[in-house]
Specification:
alpha/beta; Rossmann fold; six-stranded parallel sheet; about 40% helix; globular; binds adenosine-5'-diphosphate; binds magnesium ion
Length: about 700
């Protein structure tokens, strides 16, 4: 339960002045939350400084100035396209205030002839006149202090004005309770961090550009607050996992020896090293939670399989969970035949299974008939019970949240978890996403892979590309044609893909060209994939549904339209679908000219390397962490205040800090521990606190 002292910060934002029921949803969308605290995390991006009153001749067009004026005369306009003008005198010359669609009565009251006023706004000069169109502020001498201010400028959106935000955020600051300091005094002193109230106040009342800098102590303090909350939450979950205790699992190696005997290849050193780590974890008494990171094609599946067999050898069950139906099915099709050869039972469970068939699978899992199950998140629904689940592999985990991982862990008495990801997350980000979760990397590809020949071409070469794939097709090649992402619109994605499918089908024949997209039913997707992998289809037009994990070793050509619209990591994943067999492969990246500098750099990287880690690091450098881990797809929590490219140095400190804190005060019971609990709640890491309290 959230501590009472934080209640004011978790009031709904429409409790603040200026935010009513109409505005609320707009503000929520803008700031990414509905609580008062979310407003406090909405930081200004720039400021407007109204302190300057230069002589008119020294003003710069487009700059904000404040001027003392005497109103000379009003010049109403008869033509709606021309502004109502108020001519004013200043010490340094005449200044025209211009108003379109003016209300003469209102202007007459605001700017009485002969009176002194203070006006502030953006100045321009043309036709020999200095002019402020629609001044931002007009007031009397008595109001000078409210006019000649420095005001923050917040990121805005349609319908939410700066004024609204300034008012609401000022009120939000008033709601800030007196919070105890949770940071280590020495650390705080070393970095000269202000307390949180001062920090928030400074950030929302910037006095100059320096106050907006990500290096400002106030900003760094808040970034650190957030990073520490996150690291602490991860460390708590991790510590909990350890104390939950696991069972020591060490098979006799009999099944693994048989499998090795059947494999047409020897494991790479990297695979053996990873398995060494995994077996050691499984044998240990704690509960395993390890991340297996390996680029596409690095051979994670067989590692998972061996690890599962280790559990099966002890008479227990193991599961492999994939994020999508297609992937689950594909894993099943790869794994089941191998298991069959060595006499291990295996079943598939996805959301598509219904009725009797599903019941039979459930029964088999409950009574232990199936030693291994492959499936989607359907595997951890309430109704699914296992006889004795000991080991779970979660593939492509970045699509699952921590929460699901925990649910899965709840299915067995002590389930060891291996998380596999093909996303080459840079080291810095691994830390933020997984805390100090143990990591094994497959940093070596199986031998014999042919490099993919990647070329970058402008979109107007598409006719040449089509003739090229025609030639490849006649030589028996299988070709992926990936269609562009259209911003935020699955419908438009689909239209583009359908259009391309129609064009290619016209040229090469409808029986040779297939289409697959996210809106299709699972069964239909399978059927198309099957025809592409083993049947008559030579070309598969696809939206990004093929991105993750699809395995058609015969595919040797990939065309990606509007490659500039994809993220680098995504391009890398896509390209990983080819170059899986013995034949040489080609990837053609088509782009719409003209290309910006960053896009050019990104496509160049794709041409130059196939190393997912280099690509990921570059991606991080070019785009910043937020986008690399794009919250929506990744399910990883994004930061509000910290920016990993700007505050990356704080991350390692936060991790060590979190470790130290829990080392000394594992139950967060000291005075500082109590304060740190507040920090966790403040950044909505409630889950971690709950978890920690429950045991
Ligand atoms: P990913 O890491 O992308 O899941 P996979 O497990 O699908 O990679 O493996 C890609 C391909 O490499 C598969 O066809 C697999 O059989 C093969 N493979 C895996 N390990 C080796 C190895 N040690 N030597 C040769 N081929 C291997
Ligand atoms: Mg895989």
């Amino acid at each position: 339960m959230r501590p009472e002292i934080l209640f004011p910060l978790f009031a709904e934002i429409d409790s603040l002045p200026g935010i009513g029921p109409r505005l609320k949803p707009l503000v929520v969308r803008l700031i990414g939350g509905e609580h008062v605290a979310d407003l406090l995390w909405h930081l200004p991006s720039s400021l407007i400084d109204r302190r300057f009153s230069p002589p008119l001749s020294e003003t710069i067009d487009g700059s904000i100035v404040t001027q003392d004026v005497i109103v000379e005369r009003h010049e109403p306009s008869s033509d709606r396209r021309r502004p109502y003008r108020v001519i004013c005198r200043t010490d340094s010359g005449f200044l025209v205030l211009a108003f379109f669609n003016a209300r003469p009565k209102y202007l007459g009251d605001m700017l009485p002839v002969g009176e002194k006023r203070i006006v502030s706004g953006k100045i321009d000069h043309f036709r020999g006149e200095y002019q402020i169109t629609h001044p931002d502020r007009i007031g009397t001498e008595a109001e000078r202090a409210q006019i000649q201010t420095v005001e923050p400028v917040y990121p805005m959106s349609a319908g939410v004005t700066g004024k609204t935000l300034i008012k609401a955020i000022a009120a939000a600051l008033d709601h800030l309770p007196d919070l105890p300091e949770w940071h280590d005094a020495a650390l705080q002193k070393r970095h000269q961090w202000p307390d949180i109230r001062t920090a928030l106040y400074q950030i929302h009342h910037p006095q100059d550009e320096g106050d907006l800098s990500p290096d400002h102590p106030a900003r760094r303090r808040l970034a650190y607050d957030e990073l520490l909350a996150n690291q602490l939450a991860l460390a708590l979950i991790r510590a909990k996992m350890r104390t939950l205790g696991g069972r020591s699992i060490a098979g006799d190696g009999r099944l693994r020896a048989q499998l090795t005997h059947h494999l047409p290849f020897a494991l790479t050193n990297a695979q053996n090293r990873a398995l060494g780590d995994i077996y050691a974890d499984m044998q240990g008494s704690g509960r395993m939670l390890r991340l297996l990171q390996g680029d596409v094609g690095s051979g994670k599946t067989v590692v998972a399989l061996m690890a599962m067999l280790n559990a099966v050898e002890t008479g227990r069950q193991a599961v492999l969970m994939a994020p999508t139906e297609i992937l689950a099915r594909q894993h099943y099709e790869t794994i089941a035949p191998m298991l069959e050869k060595i006499g291990v039972t295996c079943t598939l469970l996805t959301g598509r299974d219904k009725g009797k068939a599903r019941q039979a699978v459930l029964d088999g899992l409950a009574n232990g008939d199936f030693a291994v199950a492959v499936g989607t998140h359907a595997l951890f629904q309430e109704a699914v019970a296992f006889q004795d689940l000991a080991f779970a592999v979660v593939d492509e985990q970045h699509r699952f949240g921590v929460h699901q991982r925990l649910m899965l862990a709840a299915k067995g008495t002590a389930v060891d978890v291996l998380v596999m990801t093909a996303t080459p997350i840079p080291r810095t980000l691994t830390l933020t996403a997984f805390g100090d979760m143990e990591v094994s990397r497959l940093d070596e590809k199986p031998p014999g892979r042919k490099p993919v020949d990647t070329r970058v071409l402008p979109a107007d070469k598409v006719e040449d590309v089509i003739s090229g794939i025609g030639r490849a097709m006649r030589k028996g090649a299988k070709i992926y044609w990936v269609c562009p992402l259209v911003e935020d619109s699955e419908v438009l994605d689909l239209q583009a893909a359908e259009e391309r499918h129609r064009i290619l089908a016209d040229i090469f024949g409808a029986d040779r060209v297939g289409l697959i997209h996210g809106k299709m039913k699972g069964k239909d997707k399978d059927a198309v994939m099957e025809r592409f992998a083993h049947g008559d289809l030579s070309i598969l037009v696809a939206t990004t549904v093929i991105e993750v994990g699809v395995n058609v070793p015969a595919a040797t050509v990939m065309v990606i339209e509007h490659a500039e619209r994809f993220g680098l990591a995504q391009l890398h994943q896509l390209r990983g679908r080819i170059g899986r067999g013995d034949a040489a492969s080609t990837c053609l990246l088509l782009y719409a000219a003209p290309l910006g500098q960053i896009s050019t750099a990104r496509l160049k990287i794709m041409r130059e390397t196939e190393d997912g880690f280099i690509i990921a690091e570059e991606d991080l450098r070019l785009r910043g962490a937020g986008e690399v881990l794009g919250t929506r797809q990744s399910g990883l929590q994004a930061y509000r205040l910290a920016s990993l490219d700007l505050h990356g140095d704080l991350l390692a400190i936060a991790r060590d800090d979190a470790k130290l804190i829990l080392g000394r005060d594992p139950d967060l019971k000291t005075q500082r521990g109590e304060a740190l609990r507040l920090l966790l709640y403040l950044f909505e890491r409630d889950e971690a606190v709950r978890y920690f309290r429950s045991g």
